[in-house]
Write a structure and sequence with these properties.
Layout lengths: L1 E9 L8 H13 L3 E17 L2 E13 L3 H10 L4 E8 L2 H19 L3
């Protein structure tokens, strides 16, 4: 299974009851054989431009592990989900993650040695 990040923009009118649309998104992921490793609610934010006559949306970031066939199916379902006004599903860059870890380790060593 590959690692992915899914950012979902939920309709701002659903801000008071986020459990229902988030439950729906979680079910879409798990029904396709995916596993949610992390979920981060960024809250309601102003959009750079109007989407479906909305100026705001609730941003939620999911870190996922998905089988090869799941991203296409998830994208197809999210396209027709009314609660979701936009989404972005991207594969995590393994090389970038390794470089971040190396840089972090190097910084920690420098701090330990007082450099």
């Amino acid at each position: 299974m590959k690692e992915y990040e899914l950012t979902v923009l939920i309709h701002p009118d659903l801000e008071m009851d986020l459990d229902t649309p988030l439950k729906k998104v979680r079910e879409i992921i798990t029904e396709q054989g995916g596993k949610i490793t992390k979920e981060d609610n960024w809250g309601k934010k102003k959009l750079a431009y109007q989407i479906q006559k909305q100026d705001y949306a609730v941003y939620v970031l999911f870190s996922l592990e998905l089988p090869a066939s799941a991203p296409l199916k998830i994208s197809g379902i999210l396209n027709i989900t009314d609660e979701v006004i936009r989404y972005l599903l991207v594969k995590k860059d393994e090389k970038l993650e390794k470089m971040k870890k190396i840089a972090s380790d190097k910084k920690d060593k420098e701090e330990q040695h007082g450099l």
